[in-house]
Fold this protein.
Amino acid sequence: MDLLHSQLDPLAIALVGWIPTVVGFAIRNLVYRACGMRAKGFFWIQPRVTIDNLHRLRVGRNFGCNSGTYINAIGGIECGDDVLIGANVTISSGRHEIDRLTSSIYQTPVVPKPITIESGVWIGAGASILANLRVAEGTVVGANCVVTKDTEPFSVVVGVPGRRIRFRIR
């Protein structure tokens, strides 16, 4: 089944991922769901977004993802409601096992690790969300930030690696 998805997902995205306007959004909603993506409502995925392992991606209501973003859901990615993802963001729920010295780095297996992005999160342009973490409710991830560990609810996270600089006013 995974082999089938690994071949169908890129084909589906290539066929419909470039279509502009509301027509493109509607077609992507239909095709991505047919490939196994689970969504609670209509989602807004801009043209030129790449998603690997669509069948392991779940999104809530009011999900928006901007152009140039790469999402690899190999380890599973779950997004709550009202999540916005800026342009050129990388979200990858897999990591390469680098401690094994007996094989080439090219041959090291990808270890699936889940990512949870809770409701009300905004991920700024160019940010990277690494595997095996939770982006807590209401978090704002600054542009070009690299999130390497769980965030706190309603925090503003910036930098490389990401660090909390303040909390949002509730």
Notes: Residues 2-16 form the longest helix (15 residues).
